[in-house]
Amino acid sequence: xxxxPCFYAPDTAAHDPxxxxxxxxxMANKETAERADRLLxxxxxxGLTVTDPPVTDRAPMHAVxxxxxxxxxxxxxxxxxxxxxxxxEVVANLHPQKAHQTYPSGITxxxxxxxxxxxxxxxxxxxxxxxxxxxTALAAAAAAAAGARAAYALCRPPGHHADxxxxxxxxxxxxxxxxxxxxxAHHNRVAVLDIDVHHGNGTQEIFxxxxxxxxxxxxxxxxxxxxxxxxxxxxxxxxxxxLNLPLPLRSGDDxxxxxxxxxxxxxxxxxxxxxxxxxxxxxxxxxxxxxxxxTTPGFARAAARIKAAGLPTVIVQEGGYLSEDLTHNLxxxxxxxxxxx
Length: 341
Ligand code: ZN
Description:
Elements: E1 6-7, E2 19-22, E3 25-28, H1 34-46, E4 50-51, H2 59-64, H3 67-81, H4 107-114, H5 126-145, E5 150-153, H6 175-183, E6 190-194, H7 201-207, E7 213-220, E8 242-247, H8 253-270, E9 274-279, H9 296-307, E10 313-317, H10 326-339
Helix pairs in contact: 1-10, 3-4, 5-6, 8-9, 9-10
The structure holds zinc ion (ZN).
């Protein structure tokens, strides 16, 4: 059987966020540590082995995130604890518009500055876990750079909603963008293909002005779905290297796979040396977010089509939430990849 190196850092389980708010109602966060257990079961179903990634040189992380933001993530939780009546997690309750505004020094103001929404609560262990998620993505990128046809990074927390300076939607450090940046050391051009049900807004923003990284995203129409403010078809990139393929809500396999073919045509035209697949499994028909209606066999078909692009591929886990299907959807994706020619 064709092998596919898989990486997962068990210490990322220490990030187990609690807070979330939907339509003004506080509720349990969906990006739980249990997700990793279900995804690991998917890897085991396919018979692949998992390696704990080494702590590595994180230069690509410093290339895509601002120093100010990384400093915030590192110290925010401890500073938060000194605020009167602070909760157990850093959750922004301010939403600055930023233009012409001044960067504040206090923790409440900086939390608002660096957190786009309430969906990215930062706990005591969040930053350490996010750094190990980065190590996971970098280990998979190193495997692909060393000749592996593909490598899979089970990253938690996910990353594709985080931009250079901002956490958002369960994401703190943009693992997919960091993997792409790492691959740039080996290839003149790199593409990122994001098939999460939510638009990869952070990745798009990080590379929006750059001609050396193509970003392509297939997702539910953001006009009425997270992340709402980005992900539209008219956003083509300052260098013409961004393609968004928003789909009507609750589209199924046929529409999704047709969009995927368009995405792959654009990637072929760009002729990158390597590909990062931002793998969200939340486009599934029974995912709690219910944005699209992709089936489990649909993920296997997608994997086969993406493999046919013939590029060294780093598969980075993004979304995909607790349902009976999460394990099977990852297994179908990995098996679809391995069994494709
Ligand atoms: Zn998602």
